[in-house]
Design a protein that fits this description.
Order of helices and strands: EEHHHEEEEHEEHEE
Strand content: 15-25%
Number of helices: 5
Strand order of the largest sheet: 2-1-3-9
Largest sheet: 4 strands, antiparallel
Distance between the termini: 10 Å
Mean pLDDT: 95
Low-confidence stretches: 1-5
Shape: globular
Radius of gyration: 16 Å
């Protein structure tokens, strides 16, 4: 196993509700992993999956889930207040028919090394976090390139919200969350 970096990627953590745009902490992937696999969001995740409509689920998530901005540190959740880019890109896949198959493909992809992979709060999607090198391309160029690659290779459609560096990513409970061992 590789020795962990002395400077792991850091990004902003925001306590619920979604209207809170002031971060309360700086997280690493290891922090996010501990949060996702721990008990903090277990009850909210179970309750969300019982919501009767998509609108009810959206409202419930916005009120009951803490969230992060995987792509950067912010003084406020707003593109103009970004302190630093984390070097991470989070790709969101919604309404998947076969989570296990998609998870396997992402974990075994020959070009992108998964850093974090977890089931979305709804239980019907995945959140895939990979490293990007901003010295070679912009965040937007990486997003477009990765999204195109995933569509061509696996017929996966990435949620276009990943283009936004300050995109909120809700942290659910997922005891099967994968973290790259080098991040621990």
């Amino acid at each position: 196993m590789e020795k962990p970096s002395n400077n792991p990627a850091r990004f902003s953590f925001f306590p619920k509700p979604i209207r809170n745009i002031i971060p309360s902490a700086r997280f690493t992937l290891a922090d996010a992993y501990r949060y996702i696999t721990g008990p903090m969001a277990r009850q909210a995740t179970q309750e969300l999956r019982l919501q009767p409509t998509v609108q009810d689920a959206r409202t419930f998530k916005a009120a009951n889930f803490d969230y992060v901005t995987f792509s950067g540190l912010f003084s406020k959740r707003n593109e103009k207040t970004q302190i630093a880019h984390s070097g991470l890109l989070c790709i969101d896949f919604d309404h998947l028919e076969n989570l296990d198959k998609v998870r396997w493909h992402l974990l075994n992809d020959e070009y992108f090394e998964t850093q974090l992979l977890f089931t979305s709060p709804s239980g019907h999607g995945l959140k895939w976090v990979i490293e990007i090198n901003l010295a070679t391309a912009s965040h937007l160029d990486y997003f477009n390139g990765v999204a195109n690659y995933l569509k061509q290779t696996y017929s996966l459609l990435a949620d276009p919200s990943g283009k936004d560096t300050c995109r909120a990513c809700f942290l659910p409970h997922d005891p099967n969350c994968y973290i790259n061992p080098k991040q621990l």
